[in-house]
Amino acid sequence: MNKIIGIISVLLISFNSFGQDELNTITTSVPFLLIGPDARAGAMGDVGVATSPDVNSMHWNPAKFAFVENDFGISISFVPWLRALVNDINLSYLTGYKKLDNGQAIGFELGYFSLGQITFTDNNGGLIGTYTPNEYVIGSAYSRKLSDNFSLSVGGKYILSDLTGGQSAGGYETVSGQSIAADLSGFYSETIRIAKKEMDLAIGLNISNIGNKIRYTETATNDFIPINMRLGTALGTAIDDYNKLSFAIDINKLLVPTPPKYDDEGEISSGKDPDVSVVSGIFQSFGDAPGGIKEELRELMYSLGAEYWYDNQFALRAGYFNEHDTKGGRKYFSFGMGMKYTVYTIDFSYLINATTEAGATNPLANTMRFSLTWDFGRSIKTN
User: Fold this and answer.
1) Residue 168 structural domain
2) From residue 278, how far is each of 38, 168, 282, 314 by CA, in Å?
3) DSSP class of residue 34?
4) What is the percentage of the chain residues whose pLDDT exceeds 70?
5) Can you tell me the distance from the alpha carbon of 123 to that of 107, in angstroms, rounded to the nearest whole number?
6) What is the pLDDT of residues 17-64, one digit of tens each?
7) Structure confidence at residue 274 (pLDDT)
8) How buried is residue 171: exposed, middle or buried, by Cβ count under 10 Å (0-12/13-18/19+)?
9) Whole-number Å distance between alpha carbons of 51 and 90
10) I want to staple 303 with a disulfide (CB 3.0 to 4.6 A). Which of 41, 45, 228, 314 is the partner?
11) How many domains does the chain have?
């Protein structure tokens, strides 16, 4: 069980030394929900809330589905995860959409996260058995245009986290963690003119994983799932008839309580009590950091991305992701490419460690993502 906890703790946190600043990361259950599953966004530093609509909008901003151009699409992605540490953790992801009419669409997702093979032992080190912990998410969303430029979406998902296969931990029987969560998102898009040049401006907001807490034993404290707010904008333009270029930026914040500081007697000395309801935790997350507004600002994660298309058939992408050292220290560059042939698109991305501290490592280094996408049906005019 301790090995499982150790693996989970590094899913979203790199192994860095942070100098004089004290590490105070926000941890949640089922962190795999925050892993960007597709290669397009992965190549752009994990931006996606305001980029042009595509099949993988379900993860980043389902409201974009109302603006997709084709009638039906489906995508399969595979992400080998934490390859710098182990070779058997991976994420498999299936998603798609169906346009109902010019202003409505539905989307779906199915994600499977495998944590590799774990060996269970008793207190004396005796072998109990082996098990492959895994986690699932299955969800759907409905997206609708409220005007020619603006859409909203509401979605729901079921999350199952089976880390132990019912094995005992610390003398207690374990159970699978389960949660039902909702996503709320919006998307705005319009054509503007800058320096006499037409450009496509988009703004997106997605609040995802609004759901009940999870626990793995009858006596354990319930853990928040990673309720997340993603806000971003994108700007794109056609350079000429064959060349297109776009830039995007996303800002992320976890809407769960920040761990407080405790004195020698176990009383909270700064910050707020994290043992609150889901709704209270969302609002509390904007002002509960022990370090005040300075620490609150450190909790923001930034993604920058760029995408170039030639003749709508070949794409080059690059991006950068930054998280403050005291909140996990993930810093990486990413790049990738995509090729489209009729209804098929193949995308690939690669991640490079950008941590500059001497001796620092990043378990996400060399992460690759692969996506295969099909877009079917007639093209639907989206105004």
Assistant:
1) 2-379
2) 29, 28, 6, 44
3) G
4) 90
5) 47
6) 333 468 899 999 999 999 999 999 999 999 999 999 999 999 999 999
7) 94
8) exposed
9) 25
10) 45
11) 1
